[in-house]
UniProtKB/TrEMBL annotation:
Keywords: Hydrolase, Metal-binding, Zinc. Pfam families: A_deaminase. Its cofactor is Zn(2+). Residues 37-356 form the Adenosine deaminase domain. This is Adenosine deaminase. InterPro entries: A_deaminase_dom (IPR001365), Ado/ade_deaminase (IPR006330), Metal_Hydrolase (IPR032466). Belongs to the metallo-dependent hydrolases superfamily. Adenosine and AMP deaminases family. The keyword tRNA-binding does not apply.
Length: 358
């Protein structure tokens, strides 16, 4: 039976049959799915900081981080807005280029341990030098050196996406875009926007996105995570992005879904993050499989993994369990991610080669 027939058969199954099939996926199969080579496109550099690393740094610098950690040592937060403030408190211990070099190594070692072979990370000059181009260059140099060293040790390839923070406002975003434009090249390959989606409109940031585009950077924006499908349309229309961070609420507007398919817009979907922050009550209710079935190019990432108690291996395991995704589906997901990566073509070929199955 070929894959298409198998897929058709799956879609025709009722819930009980589907469940039986999922349970039929044995431990060995799940284990090999977990260990597949992976491409991750949506990762916030500071948000990926292992809690132990941040605690260690806070101790070294005698910074009081009370309220940032729970008794079990994990990050503490109540909801998305509180998460943003805990995130910024945790980030406050990262004060020098040297700190970011150590952070980069800690983050990449964790990703490599999850079999990630290529990763794109969101970097904010706001946190790295306060938006000053000269200071940003020093941070970037340190981050890049650490990434090269870790690639030598583990094989993981990293590229950076400069990201402005929506709730810091459009003026700050212009300074960030300038930092991005000044350092655009074979390592800083993209520009994006993250932060509180309820603040401002995408068009307020159009100037920054135009500046980044003119500097040769590829574009992505967080949208459709907290706001509805309309925010995805606005990001496409006003910022002219080619990828959307999250974008899951597009599912509520099928004309928009068709547009995503037609224009080959890739969604950087972070299922574990969406469940942890209660965008969806559980993975079974998450639209990733519906979007995939309709032909949208979906990819899988962790967003801020230790905050959401997830890893890339966990994401794969949970998706296999919830939706019966097998190695063929994950191959499609990783192919989507590699083709939507903002790196140069030589790097993309290397990544695609490493994704090839024997
Ligand atoms: Zn994100």
């Amino acid at each position: 039976m070929d894959e298409e027939q198998l897929d058709r058969m799956r879609r025709g199954m009722d819930e009980e049959q589907l469940d039986r099939m999922r349970r039929g996926m044995d431990e060995e199969q799940l284990d090999s799915i977990m260990r597949l080579p992976k491409v991750e496109l949506h990762l916030h550099h500071e948000g990926a900081a292992p809690p132990g690393f941040i605690r260690g740094l806070a101790k070294e610098k005698s910074v009081n981080l009370s309220g940032v950690f729970k008794a079990d040592g994990s990050y503490a937060f109540r909801d998305f807005v509180h998460f943003l403030s805990v995130y910024e408190a945790a980030t406050s211990v990262l004060k020098t280029p040297g700190d970011y070099a150590r952070l980069t190594k800690a983050v990449l070692e964790e990703s490599a341990a999850n079999d990630v072979i290529y990763s794109e990370t969101f970097l904010s000059p706001d946190f790295c030098g306060g938006g000053d181009v000269g200071a940003w260059r020093e941070y970037l140099h340190a981050i890049r050196e650490a990434a090269i060293e870790t690639e030598r040790d583990t094989g993981i390839i990293l590229r950076g996406i400069v990201t402005c923070i929506r709730h810091f406002g459009p003026d700050q975003a212009k300074a960030t875009a300038l930092c991005a434009a000044e350092t655009a090249g074979d390592w800083i390959v993209g520009f994006g926007i993250a932060g509180d989606e309820s603040r401002g409109k995408p068009r307020d940031f159009a100037y920054s996105f135009d500046l980044a585009r003119e500097a040769g950077l590829r574009l992505t924006a967080h949208a459709g995570e907290w706001s509805g499908a309309g925010s995805v349309r606005e990001a496409l229309d006003d910022l002219k992005v080619e990828r959307i961070g999250h974008g899951v609420h597009a599912i509520n507007d099928l004309a928009l879904v068709d547009r995503l398919v037609e224009n080959q817009i890739t969604l950087e979907i972070c299922p574990g993050s969406n469940v942890a922050l209660n965008v969806y009550p559980n993975l079974a209710a998450h639209p990733i499989e519906k979007l995939r079935q309709r032909g949208v190019k979906v990819t899988v990432s962790t967003d801020d993994p230790p905050f959401f108690h997830t890893t890339m291996r966990d994401e794969y395991l949970n998706l296999a369990r919830s939706f019966g995704w097998d190695e063929t589906v994950f191959a499609e997901i990783n192919d989507n991610a590699a083709r939507a990566a903002f790196c140069d073509e030589d790097t993309r070929s290397r990544v695609l080669k490493r994704l090839e199955r024997p």
